[in-house]
Amino acid sequence: MTTMARLALGVLFLGNLTLLLGLRLDARLHALDPGLAAREEVFTMSNPGHALAGVGIALVVGATALLLLSTVRRRAVLAATAAVAATVLLGLLSLSTVRLTVAQSGDDGHRHHHPPAPAGGPSPAPGTHAPDGATPEQRAAAERLLAEVRAAATRFATVEAAEAEGYRRTTPFLFGTWGPAHWHNRAYNRDGRWLDPRYPEGLVYLRLRDGRTVLLGVMFVAFKGQGPRPGGSLTEWHTHENMCIRPDGRVALAIAPGQCPPGSTFVGEAVEMMHVWLFDHPGGPFAHHLDAEALRAALRQFGR
Question: What secondary structure does DSSP assign to 253-298, as a single string?
């Protein structure tokens, strides 16, 4: 096989990989925004999934043409034909898995313990427990906590304000240039104050595709078993069994149970966390997950 043919096969492989990545990313975007299909054409280059797929198709077409031009023997012609057939089969396979990817996209990249506890709704009769197990006093305490967090969080309306107070981003934006991301304040993590609405250890922002950034909620951190539960089952804490921390404070995910990427430290279940969401989270203001349904709700509320 000639050097040109080898080069063409390498580009063909790269094109297939880029095309598959583009299709996967596009599926993820559509899972988070069901109305996206109605606002875009077959190829909308502002959609990063479409852009990647377009680059992949261009690479595949160019490599196939180069491979055919380099064929001088029957064996090379057969190799080019097989490569084109493999491209078509891979494309069909990726399209068949797009719906599966959409159906399975429903978490924020972490494995959680405890299901989200709903909040709100009618209060039970005095002296009785609500269906979620909370007493009237606990429900009132949860409402007070939510009101206090909302009032205190107004000073974090912008990322700049949060960073001026010492918060630093610890996770990348979920979709590269946009999506949710976490900020963390090391000083507040070490001050010994558990569940203080004025000093949350973490903040969760959502960067929209138009460049705006909005505060989705706050996150409190405590040593496992020490987090206060004023609202009973409504204000339960949760753990991340696969979380590691790098020296710079950034979050990394364990590559195996208890095994962190090089240079990071396993946190696992040593600490527990509580989210308090400031948007209309489908699971309630104390839900543990920021899943696809919740992100869709946030996008609807803050605009796409």
Answer: E-SBTTBPPTT-EE-TTSEEEEEEESS--TT-TT-S---HHHHHHH
